[in-house]
Amino acid sequence: MDRDFPIAERIRRIRAGELSDGPSTPGMLRSQAVATDRVWAGMVHTEPGAFSGWHHHGEHESVIYVATGALRMESGAHGQDVFDAQPGDFVYVPPHAVHRESNTTDIVATLIVTRSGQGQSVINVEGPDH
Length: 130
What we know:
By secondary structure, the chain is mostly beta strands. 0% of the residues lie in helices and 42% in strands.
């Protein structure tokens, strides 16, 4: 059989116990399953009542799935754009969108996150207008 495409990297499984520490933002614990030059995937845990620091994801587009708890997302000028996402909701974060996240519930929020892009995936900043 003649093939005109390169041999692909092997498909692999990452077990729950094999996740490593992900890039940090104050108030959030990130665990990464996959980190390549073009994609990042992992989980984020936010304690009840906790807020993350302000940050953005550079050139990356992010999709967040709320598994447990809740996600309050603050963004926009002066952080005035605010909404809450509940378990089962997805949130899209475009490149360079400065934001912070919080958990408004009394249980640990668990978020499943995938990012696609290149360059540094987490850039911590002082606030939404920086």
